[in-house]
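step 3/5: co-fold with adenosine-5'-triphosphate
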Amino acid sequence: FTALGIETSCDDTAVGIIRSDRNILGEAIKLQQEIHEPKGGVVPTLAMVYHQTFLPQVVKSALDNARLDVVRDIDVIAVTRGPGLAPCLSVGLNAAKTLAIVLGKPLIGVHHMEAHALTARLTNPELKFPFLVLLISGGHTLILLAHGINKYTQLATTLDDAIGEAFDKTARLLGLPWLKGRNGGPGAALEKFAAAGDPNRYQIPIPMTKEKRTKENPNMSFSGLKTSINILLEKENLDLRDFQVKRDVAAAFQATAIRHLSDKLNLAFDWCKERDLALNGLVASGGAASNKAIRTSLEKLAHDKYNIELICPPPHLCTDNGLMIAWAGIERYRVGLIDDYTINHIPKWPIEELGTISTASSS
Ligand code: ATP
Ligand code: FE
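step 4/5: write C-alpha cells
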C-alpha cells in the first residue's frame, strides 16, 4: 500500500509519498529560509501563513512528482500531529483530515519524533527492535530506548536548549550567514565553519562535568555552551571580522557539544547494559544528525566502544521531510494504529505518552 505524508510542524512545508515496500515514489518541499533568516529565527505566525499559502501546491507537486492520482493510488494519509508549533501543525492536520475523510482513506496522526526515529527502519530494512535512539534536532535532544512502534522509554532529554538550537544560537552569535537550500540553515553554516577551524585553539568547558550527579544522570544541557561562547568572545575580546577566529570558535563549540553527547550516550549504554538489554543498533536522527563531525564520532563510539551498528539516515532524511511522516504512517498503519477524523494537534507531546493518547479529538 501507499502513504502520503504531510509535515508542517516547523518552517518547512513537506510532503512525501512512499510505498510499504520502501519504494520512494515522490516528494516535494517548500523551504522558508528566506522568510525567517532576516528575523534571526523561525517566526511561528509567519511560518503558519506560508504553510497556508503553499501546502496545497506542495501536495500537488508531490503527487505530480510521483505521477500518482490521489483518489486511485493513495491508500493512507499520514500527518504530523505534534510536537511542534501549534499554528503550523494545524495547517497540515486540517489539510490531511479533509483529504482523508473526503476521499474515505484512513488517517494516521504521527508523532514527529517517532517519525525521525523510524526513518532508520526505512533506510535499514533489517533494523529490529529494541534499539537505542539519539534524536538531535531543533527542538529536542533525546536518548530513547525504542521497544516497538508506539512504544519508547525516554532515558534522557535536555534540561534546557536543544542541541540544534545551540548550534543555531552560536551561529547567530558568530554572525554566520545561513547555508542555503535543503540541509541548509544556521546549524549547517556552523558546521561548515567548524570544519575549517582548529578545535584546540579555544577551550570551552564540557557541560555538566562538574556535577556529581552527572555520573548517573544521562540528561543533557546545551544552554551553558552558548553562554561559554559568549564569555569567550568577551573575555578574549575576539575580533569576529577575522574569519579564522570564527572558524576556530565554531570548531571549539562543535567539539565540545560532541564530547557532551558522547559522555551522556555512554551513560545510556551503561543503563542498557545493567539491564542486559540486547540492543540491535544505535540510531541517530533529526536535523543535527546530518552533521558529519557528529556522525563520525557517533560511528566511532558505537563501533569501537560498543561493537554495535550506527544507523544514521542520509542528511536529507535526517532534517524534516515528508517521507519520514509517510513512512511512520506506514509503520503505524501496519500494526492497526488508525486515528479518528476528529483528532487535534498536540503541540507539546512527550514521546513516552505514545500509546496512552486517545486517537480521537478529546485528547
Ligand atoms: P524537532 O524535530 O525537534 O521538532 P525541527 O523539526 O525544527 O525540530 P529538524 O529539521 O529536525 O528540527 O532539525 C533542524 C535543526 O537541526 C536546527 O536546529 C539546525 O540547526 C540543526 N541542524 C541542521 N543541520 C545541522 C548541521 N549540519 N549541524 C548541526 N546542526 C544542524
Ligand atoms: Fe524535526
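step 5/5: annotate
The mean pLDDT is 95.
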